[in-house]
Design brief:
single chain, Barwin-like endoglucanases, mainly beta, 13% helix
Length: 128
């Protein structure tokens, strides 16, 4: 059996721009992509905390340290600059891999700078 598991997420990023007249995708600061282990053209889920919209697209890199989070194409109609979003990627794992799996959780500030990076173990230990 295979399970679809959270591989990584960028939590509460701020949308900096949205461009309808583009072929589609979400442009993400390369530093955030690296921290979250998301690669160019990888599928991501985007959940808008501000308005509740959800959609899937693919990631493309923006310049490192730019803070840029730009939603392009039709999905640009689902977000507005200033919206808070969660960007998530998933991986298929076999049963034996699931117990050892630890997603990368990237937490950012209002300018999309990394505040902290955590994983399953870090989160579980802080919940008590």
């Amino acid at each position: 059996m295979q399970r679809s598991m959270l591989k990584s997420k960028i939590h509460r990023a701020t949308v900096t721009q949205s461009l309808v007249d583009y072929e589609g995708s979400i442009e993400i600061d390369q530093g955030l992509l690296d921290a979250a282990d998301i690669v160019h053209y990888e599928e991501v889920q985007v959940w808008d905390v501000t308005n509740g919209n959800r959609f899937a697209t693919y990631a493309i890199p923006a310049p490192k340290a730019s803070g840029r989070i730009c939603v392009n194409g039709a999905a640009a109609r689902l977000v507005s600059p200033g919206d808070l979003i969660i960007i998530a990627s998933f991986v298929m794992l076999g049963e034996q891999e699931v117990a050892k799996h630890e997603p990368k959780l990237v937490f950012v500030d209002g300018q999309n700078r990394i505040k902290s990076i955590g994983g399953k173990k870090a989160r579980l230990s802080s919940v008590s």
